[in-house]
Fold:
Amino acid sequence: MLTYFKSYFQKEENGPKNFCYIVGSFASTAPKLRTPKSDIDVICSTDVDENEIRYHLKKRYPNIPPTIPIDIKYVTPTSENVINYQVCYWQDAKYLPLIENSNIRLNSVRKEKTLPCVVRNPNKQELSTYLNTAKKIDVSHPLHYTNSIKNHYGEFNFHSTVNSSNLGYQEKNMLKNLLGANGSVNENHIIIDIENNLVVGKEKKWNYFNFNRNILGYNFAYSAFYSLGIFRKIEYFYKKLKQKVFSGY
Structure:
């Protein structure tokens, strides 16, 4: 019984266990959304459900649409009551309390530069720079990749930027096909290794042919046609020819 009362008073002293914080772009732009299609990212304890989150959002931001998409990430603090949350490399490391807990300390961790983070960057020139300089294109999770492009960059703009980049035909084709798959590719993480003509997952690697056929679901002829490196050779000789023409040789 003594142990019970001791535990009870410790809980009262430490405050409530539940918590919920807004992170991501809305933490910087509130009470306005960054784009009409933006969602709201929150990190919460496991005992906070979506209805409770929407109640607190509406109470704090009355003009927020009642059907605004909410991306909920349930987290468990470390033994030191720290929550580590990720932000894109360009984002302000801010957060806003919905259900505050004074015992919790939030610590932002910047992600590596991934393609979904690049297309979410308000500086729209960043995508072109990334595609033209990257030796490996970190697509991250295919569904996140698709949603980030559709909601933050636009499919038409994305296709135009990819087409005008220095990428080879195979890489351009895979990026557009991954977008066309609408997040249906069942892989946790995808990196296109341009230097080695490989696609690298968390546990597997594929050459371009196998990725087109086994993961994207294209037939043998299609996969072979876009994976044999023919277009890379044509592009190489075309660039060499342009150099000779413009240099006067």
Remarks:
- The chain has a mean pLDDT of 84.
- The chain has two domains: 15-110, 115-237.
- The CA atoms of residues 119 and 153 lie 6 Å apart.
- The first strand starts at residue 20 and ends at 23.
